[in-house]
């Protein structure tokens, strides 16, 4: 198994002093590392789901590649007002305010088993909103998969407390 942490750049003091930003774009630029990442995700997520839900925007990249690899469909979880037609949505708290995540109202039939995917889990707000949105439609969130976990920020634990199994390929201490 390839150590993917070496392909992820750390940018100190971005977007604010004291933050160690984990930049996934360097992994995406490295074809071999990106391929290994998708293979490793496929190996840990299983196949007991029908759809792979990607959270806008970087989550789309990993969800689409993983879904293709496993022969599954892709569900897009988008920011507010980005989807045409009828939508379902969930508001969630940000550090200063609120945001909203939406999906097409007819995208998930009741009982559909869904894997939730994003590039990184930090505080877990967006991932918890994604899980709530899938459940609102009657879907079942089988697990959530991330390339990076920042365990010190508690997002993976918050998602587990919400009843979602969490898997991640790389963990970085700190913020």
Automatic annotation (TrEMBL):
Main location group: cytoplasm
Classification via InterPro entries: Ade_phspho_trans, Adenine_PRTase, PRTase-like, PRTase_dom
Gene3D superfamilies reported in the protein's UniProt record: 3.40.50.2020
Pathway, per record: Purine metabolism; AMP biosynthesis via salvage pathway; AMP from adenine: step 1/1
SUPFAM superfamilies on file: PRTase-like
UniProt key word Transferase: yes
Swiss-Prot/TrEMBL catalytic activity: AMP + diphosphate = 5-phospho-alpha-D-ribose 1-diphosphate + adenine
Domain Phosphoribosyltransferase: 48-151
Top-level division of the source organism's lineage: Bacteria
Assigned EC number: 2.4.2.7
A Pfam family per the record: Pribosyltran
Major enzyme class: transferase
CDD domains to which the protein is assigned, alphabetical: PRTases_typeI
Biological processes, Gene Ontology terms: adenine salvage; AMP salvage; purine ribonucleoside salvage
Transmembrane segments: none
Localisation: Cytoplasm
Keywords: Cytoplasm, Glycosyltransferase, Purine salvage, Transferase
GO cellular component, one term: cytosol
UniProt keyword Transmembrane, yes or no: no
GO molecular function, one term: adenine phosphoribosyltransferase activity
Family, per entry: Belongs to the purine/pyrimidine phosphoribosyltransferase family.
Function: Catalyzes a salvage reaction resulting in the formation of AMP, that is energically less costly than de novo synthesis.
HAMAP family: Aden_phosphoribosyltr
The protein, known as: Adenine phosphoribosyltransferase
Organism for this UniProt entry: Sandaracinobacteroides saxicola
Primary gene name: apt
């Amino acid at each position: 198994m390839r150590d993917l942490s070496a392909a992820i750049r750390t940018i100190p003091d971005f977007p604010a002093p004291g933050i160690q930003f984990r930049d996934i774009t360097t992994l995406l630029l490295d074809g071999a590392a990106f391929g290994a990442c998708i293979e490793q995700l496929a190996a840990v997520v299983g196949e007991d789901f029908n759809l792979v839900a990607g959270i806008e925007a970087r989550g789309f990249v990993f969800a689409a590649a993983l879904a293709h690899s496993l022969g599954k469909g892709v569900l897009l979880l988008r920011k507010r007002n980005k989807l045409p037609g009828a939508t379902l949505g969930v508001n969630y708290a940000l550090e200063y305010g609120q945001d909203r995540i939406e999906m097409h109202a007819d995208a998930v039939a009741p009982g559909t088993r869904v894997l939730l995917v994003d590039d990184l889990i930090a505080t877990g707000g967006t991932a918890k909103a994604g899980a709530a949105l899938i459940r609102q439609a009657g879907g079942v969130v089988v697990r959530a998969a991330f390339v990076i976990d920042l365990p010190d920020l508690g997002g993976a634990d918050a998602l587990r407390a919400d009843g979602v199994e969490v898997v991640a390929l790389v963990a970085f201490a700190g913020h």
